[in-house]
Specification:
mainly alpha
């Protein structure tokens, strides 16, 4: 977890909350990094407009030269279109290793 990168979705999943979380996570201790893998249940749609949202905001920034590689967790990807599986599952993204992308969901039982 990264300080100030966890948000509460008060009224459903409002994208501005996610924008804030990603920008804060990417601004913490990322000097020298040029890529970031992100997991989000709707990354296939969310990532389409992320850079536009950041560019028009006075409060959001992403480090210069940072490439964001979007992914969708293995449990959630199966509710998407077939093409999302090929594009967004980390099984097929070079450098992503073996990870399920369901980080928060695996913590629900022990934390509740």
């Amino acid at each position: 977890f990264v300080l100030n990168s966890m948000v509460d979705f008060q009224k459903g999943e409002r994208q501005m909350n996610m924008d804030y979380a990603i920008c804060n996570a990417l601004s913490y201790n990322t000097d020298g990094l040029h890529q970031a893998f992100t997991f989000y249940n709707v990354n296939c749609q969310y990532n389409k407009h992320l850079w536009q949202q950041v560019d028009k905001s006075l409060h959001l920034t992403i480090p210069s030269g940072m490439e964001i590689i979007p992914g969708i967790g293995l449990w959630h990807i199966h509710g998407h279109q077939d093409k999302c599986f090929a594009w967004y599952t980390f099984n097929f993204i070079p450098g992503a290793a073996r990870i399920d992308g369901e980080i928060m969901e695996t913590l629900w039982a022990p934390l509740n």
